[in-house]
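Appendix B, Record 12. Input sequence as logged:
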Amino acid sequence: MNAFETTGVDLAGPLYLRNGDKVWIVLFTCAVYRCVHIDFVMSLSTEAFVNALWRFVNVRGRPTTVYSDNGTNFIGTVNLFNKLNWTEIQRTAGVEQIKLIFNPPSAAWWGGWWERLIRTIKELLKRMLGNSRVNYEQLRTCLSHVENVINERPLTTVTEDQNDLIPLTPAMFLRGIRLGSFPEGFSLVFICSRIIRNSSLCSRSYKIDSRESIWHC
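Logged structural output:
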């Protein structure tokens, strides 16, 4: 069974990178197991979201139903889907059209099950980065770590009994019981950052005002 068969999607941001570019975080979350898949896009256009959806399907599998708010990029995606010849697609590829369902415009609480995760993503990124700005590669690494932390959160009660059962986590429905932690990665990143900081390229580094936030919102 595809863990993301029924999925909620939302965007957060913008987030400012070191070179001044803006990106938006894209969150896909499973309605059943609360797994998350996190990506980012360079604009709020329909094309940018379609590409993010394509990447999501390539990695996590094809959902049957996607819930979202009434963002113009989501509405634009539905309009594009409706222009396709689904009779021919179903005949040749054997797939059904992904059903996109929008929240009622006056019922924002319908998206509470992904809005809470958006807040968690922001909190984790702020703890990791503070007011620092990163480049694309660093952001991709940070988001993968945030995704792993959220997917390894316990879904059941955690006790102090060492003999108790291992708590269920969303990650278990994605990759079994194997842990996805890479604690030595932080040391490697620190070493790489120090080498870069001491290089001659440092003279071109982007200067950040300590009062400036990485988040626009």
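Confidence is low (pLDDT under 50) at residues 177-185, 199-212.
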